[in-house]
Design brief:
Structural class: mainly alpha
Shape: globular
Largest sheet: 3 strands, parallel
Helix content: 40-55%
Bound molecules: adenosine-5'-tetraphosphate
Length: about 350
């Protein structure tokens, strides 16, 4: 029986069109959204305004935007049931970002660890947009009066800030204008690590293609990357304790666990005393089975820009309708002329 959506819940999430979408983006985000769409109203955004906060991501933005749209659809997000659209197509994101920034103390932004990581040593030269990125993220969520936001480990602090901004705004105008958005933590793959270094996050921007499984990788490439994934010279762990100080092994077991829904203990039991090669072969099989299907579908979708663009235009119209009303109400609450 088809279940009806929970009308009072509105889920918002997004991915940056920065190229090289990978298994971490899928297991840590997109796959969870596929489950959420069945019972909830969902808005899935392609956050291109966020992508331009770093100079290396400003090229190929159009191609990367279509790649994210294709990944959403190929992974099972239904464009008829949900709103899929591009952030820069709805002016309300930038507008609300400014309005919220006037209610955001600089001290709150100074605490954001991602800015410190991404700006590196030369903070004085970092763009203002990278610094105020979390305010834009708050605007993305609050523009639609979203109630729930699926977040990965690395976005938790930003969501906390969105909650603080919503509360500060509501307090200032003495009105519950924005719902205070709740995090949705789903799945157990909160953070996948690089296949080459178990202490580094699997990331689109890692210069080494071998560090990640891309959603566009073919079956052959997936098998090769898993074969070459870093391990160590010790045998397959016999228990949890033997995972200590073995981040690469832990990561591969975590990936297997997330893909199969077997617990780490069950995996250790299944493979202990076996050669690592056997584990890696099975891991490859599991990944090929799922990811190469997505890859084939993505490649097919990417040959049909007319279809992809029509999905995004349609999504933009739906998103704009909600956004425009909320912006109008907000301007009236602030007391601006002409509303
Ligand atoms: N390694 C990961 N493990 C689990 N989840 C991950 N996500 C990203 N990397 C991992 C989740 O994917 C969603 C979209 O991420 P994003 O596009 O906003 O950018 P990001 O978090 O900065 O992802 P990347 O891949 O690391 O990109 P770059 O290299 O451009 O910074 C988010 O929900 C994120 O948690």
């Amino acid at each position: 029986m088809e279940r009806t959506k929970t009308e009072d819940k509105l889920i918002f999430s997004g991915v940056q069109p920065t190229g090289n979408l990978h298994l971490g983006n899928y297991l840590g985000a997109i796959r969870n959204w596929v489950d959420l769409q069945n019972n909830n109203n969902c808005i899935f955004c392609i956050v291109d305004l966020h992508a331009i906060t770093t100079s290396e991501n400003r090229t190929q933005i159009l191609q990367n935007t279509r790649e994210v749209a294709a990944a959403y659809i190929a992974s099972g997000i239904d464009p008829q049931k949900n709103i899929i659209f591009v952030q820069s197509n709805v002016a309300g994101h930038s507008e609300l970002s400014w309005l919220l920034s006037c209610h955001t103390p600089i001290g709150w932004l100074n605490r954001m660890t991602q800015f410190k990581d991404k700006a590196g040593k030369n903070k004085e030269k970092a763009p203002l947009g990278l610094y105020s990125y979390p305010v834009l993220m708050a605007a993305d969520i609050l523009l639609y009066k979203s109630t729930h936001v699926p977040v990965g480990e690395d976005q938790k602090q930003h969501l906390e800030l969105s909650r603080d901004i919503a509360q500060a705004f509501n307090r200032y105008y003495n009105k519950e204008f924005f719902p205070v958005p709740e995090p949705v933590i789903s799945g157990n793959a909160t953070r996948l690590m690089s296949l080459k270094d178990g202490l580094k996050k699997m990331s689109k921007s890692d210069p080494s293609d071998q560090s990640r499984i891309n959603l566009t990788d073919s079956a052959d490439v997936i098998v090769k990357k898993i074969q070459k994934a870093k391990t160590d010279s010790d045998p397959f762990p016999l228990n949890h304790d033997q995972l200590t100080n073995r981040p690469e092994i832990k990561n591969l077991i975590n990936i297997y666990s997330t893909m199969t829904d077997l617990s780490v203990d069950e995996i250790i039991k299944k493979f202990n005393e076996k050669d690592f090669k056997i584990f890696k072969n099975e891991l490859s099989d599991v990944l090929v089975d799922k990811i190469s299907k997505i890859s084939v579908e993505m490649k097919k979708l990417l040959t049909d820009n007319i279809y992809l663009d029509s999905i995004l235009k349609n999504g933009c119209e739906k998103a704009e309708k909600i956004a425009n009303k909320n912006i109008r109400d907000l301007k009236s609450l602030i007391g601006f002329f002409g509303v």
